[in-house]
Amino acid sequence: MKSIFNILVFATVFIAGCTKNSSNPSANGNSSNSTSITGNFVITKFTDSNPNEDKTTQFTGYVFTFTADGKIVAEKNGVTTTGSYVEKPSHEGEGAKLNIIFSDAPLNALSKNWQVNLISNSAIHLADDDNSSEVLEFTAQ
Predict the structure, then answer these.
(1) Which of 23, 32, 40, 58 has the most CB atoms less than 10 A away?
(2) Is pLDDT of 40 > 60?
(3) CA distance 54 to 73
(4) How far apart are CA 49 and CA 41, in angstroms?
């Protein structure tokens, strides 16, 4: 039963992602769960509160793996750091969220409750749910 539910949720996320209005992500009805993120990713864009200050290079060399049990494993030069994530489906007109948690610098800069703009096997696009100028984008490796 759980696997059928997961398949249905994944199909909903995939279809919603293909037709989503990126200017109003909370209106798309997009939902996700921990099985919607698979594979290895690298950060291809990270801006903090100042959108003109690109901080992407701080994460060059990191490979991020999202696990089905809510962990994010970040590896760089043979050093592994484990964080966590929680996916929250869209609810009552509010878009889906992805809460990322790392305790160690520099990865803790990624820790916040992100608005989900896209989750697919090839990309994850997030924006700060309180400040749309903060962006975090992953691309499959």
Answers:
(1) 32
(2) yes
(3) 23
(4) 23
At a CB cut-off of 8 Å and minimum separation 6, what does 126 contact?
98, 114, 115, 116, 117, 135, 136, 137
Tokens for 28, please give them.
């798309």
Residue 19: predicted pLDDT: 35
What is the token pair recorded at 36?
A: 């919607």
Three-class SS state of 23: coil
CATH T-level topology, domain 2-140: Lipocalin (2.40.128)
Please tell me the distance from the alpha carbon of residue 132 to that of residue 21, in angstroms, as a whole number: 15
Task: Give how far Cα 52 sits from Cα of 22, 45, 58, 100, 135, Å.
Answer: 20, 12, 15, 23, 11
CA-atom Rg of the chain in angstroms: 14
Please confirm whether the linkage preceding 89 is cis (ω < 30° from 0): no
pLDDT of 9-31, one tens digit each?
444 444 444 433 333 333 333 33
Does 101 have pLDDT greater than 50? Answer: yes
Average pLDDT over residues 51-76: 93
Ramachandran region of residue 26, left (φ > 0), alpha (ψ -120 to 50) or beta? alpha
